[in-house]
Each structure stands twice: as structure tokens, then as C-alpha cells.
Design goal:
By secondary structure, the chain is mostly helical. It has a single domain, classed as Growth Hormone, Chain: A (Up-down Bundle). α7 runs antiparallel to α12.
Length: about 400
């Protein structure tokens, strides 16, 4: 096996494990917040938005810093930092006794973790250019596989043993991912020569690239529109599923099915993007994402939610790897960490604002309103994609 493939497959599996760990309780945060003493549905939606946004704000600030350090000291070390810090923070979440304490943990999570960006930078640095679409598509598939497995098993654990046990199991799973990166990946990293300025690269070099700037704004819009409904969705499931029995398992199952569809979509569309062009993939995904978003408005059955979330998972999964592949095609090797750090900063800004705005909209105007705005956001992404140069 080629050395880059061994590193890629190890990073792929480690990424799955880390996302499984982080996702063990994430979809059920509104219910955990209720356990911490927040009673009304509107307040649960609002505080869920605040908690979900917290990590995005600090990740947006720290991602460029970690990206710069990755280019200076190596990308593998940044993956290890993210995973082992994530282990500690997930365990701390199992000990919180109030919503403010949970928010502090989420702020620390954003500042010190960021496994997705770190792993993408590692794989982008070792994969051959002609295989970048496939490799980055598979890394996005790893995220969706983790989002599929984490909520499914996390819901079962939460229903039978409680949320705190789920947080602790999540911490162990992330730790296993860190061990796999430590012993299963190899990075041929050459530190920049202090005597040769051209090997250093700067954020200015990255930000001068027009296609890169357009790509990161697309990533921001994708994350923002996708995150809008995250505080409201579990509450909509509970509203439709009137009995309320095994609600965590049900939410986890819906998220899992959508994520499984996304994993397949990311892997397939990443490969097709190398052949057809990533812009075509983005356009198709934006149209499908908008249709699926608007379809949430009238749905009133659990079966309908399964179908619509699956369609949305298929669409959203193709967007991120296509955008990442376009970024890789525009950026020099010595600027990879900086580029993906800056891209993560933009996308996490969307992930930070999205739940906060979605929690406000859901709590103030109704739980379905965020899906309307989400669909409009997908159309906004489509408009940005259509402005990209034809070569992408």
C-alpha cells in the first residue's frame, strides 16, 4: 500500500471515531438542557442555539492560528492536539450542573479542538493532486458516518443510562481516534526554511486568491443555512411524535439515516467531482438542498421526516468536499494549513451564527421558520456558485 493511502485510511477511520464521540449527545442538547433546569420549549430552543453556537465562535477565532501552526510544525500534531483536547472536554461536559457551565465547555471545545479541519489539512497534504477530490470526499464521508453512528448509539445510551454516561463514552471514542492517528499516520513534513521566505507563505497570499475567497464564503453560507434548524429539529420530532417514548433514540435514528445517505453521497460525489467538475456538483447539491429545506415546512409525520432529512443529507454532503477540493486546487503546498484554517474560520462563523439565529427564530416565530430561512440560504449559495470561474 502506498504510504499516503495508509495515512489516508488511518485518518479516515480516526475521523469517524472523533465525530462519533462528539455526536454522541450533540443532537439531544435541548433535552439535556431541560435536564439542567430549563423548562419551557421556547427557552430550550434559545439556549440550545446558544450552546450549539458557542463552539463555533471560538473555533472561528482559533482555526487560523492552528492552521498557521500546522504549516510551521506539521499537520499531524494538530490532529493529535484536537483529538486529545476533545477527549478531556467531552468528559468535562459529563460533569456540568448548569447551562453556563455547559457553554464554557463548548467554548473550550471550539478553541482547542477542530478535528475536521486538522484532518482535512493532513490528508490534503499527503494525497496526490489528481486524487484530492476522492480523498477529501471520503473525509467528508467520514464526518457523515460519524454523525450517523454517534446519534444512533448515543440515543440508545441516553435513553437507558442518561446523558452523562453518553458524554463519557464519547470521550473514550475520541481518545481511540487520537491513538489511531498517533500510530497509524505518517507525515513527511519539512519545516519552512527560515532563510527562504517563499517557503513560508502568508495569510495575505491565501486571501489574495479570488476563487479561494469565493469558496470560503460559499462554505460559510452552507454552514449557516445548515445550522439554522439544529436547535428546532429535535423539538419538531417531539412535537410530531406525541407519545414522547424513546425520543432520543428516534431523533438519533433520523439523524443517522440522513447521515448515512450523506456519507454515501460525499464519497460518490467527491469522486465524480474529479471527473465532471466540482462546480457542477455544487450546483446540483444546492438545488436539491433548497427543495429539501422547503419540504420541512408542511411535513407532519415521522416517515416524512425520514424521507426529507435523507434527501437533505444527500444534498448537503456533496457541498463541503467539492468546496474543499476547489480550495486545494488553488493553494500552494506551504499554505495548506493556513488555507484550511481560514476556511474553517469562515465556515465556523456560519456554524456559530446559525444555531443562535435558528434558536431565536424557532423560539420567537415558530419551530418551522428556520427551515424556510435555510432553504433561502441554499438558494444564496447557488447564486455564489454560479459566479465562480468556469475552471472550478
Amino acid at each position: 500500500m502506498a504510504p499516503w493511502k495508509r495515512t489516508f485510511y488511518s485518518a479516515f477511520i480516526a475521523q469517524i471515531l472523533s465525530i462519533v464521540g462528539f455526536a454522541f449527545c450533540f443532537p439531544f442538547l435541548p433535552f439535556f438542557i431541560a435536564e439542567l433546569g430549563v423548562d419551557s420549549k421556547a427557552e430550550q430552543a434559545w439556549w440550545a442555539g446558544v450552546v450549539m453556537s458557542a463552539a463555533g465562535f471560538t473555533l472561528a477565532i482559533f482555526a487560523p492560528i492552528w492552521g498557521m501552526l500546522a504549516d510551521r510544525y506539521g499537520r499531524k500534531s494538530m490532529v493529535l492536539r484536537a483529538m486529545f483536547c476533545g477527549t478531556v472536554i467531552m468528559f468535562l461536559m459529563s460533569l456540568v450542573q448548569s447551562v453556563p457551565q455547559l457553554i464554557v465547555c463548548r467554548l473550550l471545545q471550539g478553541a482547542l479542538t477542530g478535528t475536521v479541519a486538522a484532518s482535512v489539512a493532513l490528508v490534503a497534504g499527503v494525497a496526490p493532486a489528481h486524487r484530492s477530490g476522492f480523498a477529501l470526499g471520503m473525509m467528508q464521508a467520514a464526518v457523515f458516518i460519524g454523525v450517523c453512528l454517534g446519534p444512533f448509539f448515543g440515543g440508545i445510551v441516553a435513553d437507558h443510562f442518561g446523558y452523562r454516561v453518553a458524554f463519557r463514552i464519547g470521550a473514550v471514542v475520541i481518545f481511540l481516534g487520537g491513538l489511531l492517528v498517533q500510530f497509524g499516520t505518517k507525515e513527511e513534513f519539512t519545516p519552512p526554511d527560515p532563510e527562504r521566505k517563499e517557503t513560508h507563505g502568508t495569510f495575505s497570499d491565501v486571501l489574495k486568491n479570488r476563487t479561494f475567497l469565493l469558496a470560503v464564503f460559499i462554505m460559510l453560507a452552507i454552514r449557516l443555512s445548515n445550522a439554522l434548524a439544529s436547535p428546532s429539529f429535535p423539538l419538531i420530532v417531539k412535537e410530531i411524535h406525541k407519545s414522547g417514548e424513546a425520543i432520543n433514540s428516534l431523533v438519533g435514528s433520523i439523524v443517522a439515516v440522513a447521515a448515512l445517505a450523506g456519507a454515501i453521497s460525499a464519497a460518490v460525489l467527491g469522486h465524480f467531482g474529479d471527473s465532471w467538475g466540482h462546480k457542477k456538483v455544487l450546483i446540483a447539491c444546492c438545488i436539491c438542498g433548497a427543495v429539501a429545506s422547503f419540504a420541512h415546512l408542511p411535513v407532519n409525520s415521522i416517515a416524512g421526516l425520514f424521507v426529507i432529512r435523507t434527501a437533505f443529507g444527500l444534498a448537503i454532503a456533496g457541498m463541503i468536499p467539492a468546496t474543499n477540493a476547489m480550495i486545494r486546487g488553488e493553494i500552494a503546498d506551504h499554505n495548506i494549513g493556513k488555507a484550511y484554517g481560514a476556511a474553517t474560520s469562515f465556515s465556523m462563523s456560519g456554524l456559530a451564527i446559525g444555531p443562535l439565529l435558528g434558536g431565536f427564530l424557532g423560539g420567537t416565530f415558530g419551530l418551522r421558520v428556520p427551515f424556510l430561512v435555510m432553504g433561502l440560504g441554499q438558494l444564496g449559495v447557488l447564486a455564489l456558485v454560479c459566479r465562480m470561474e468556469k475552471k472550478t
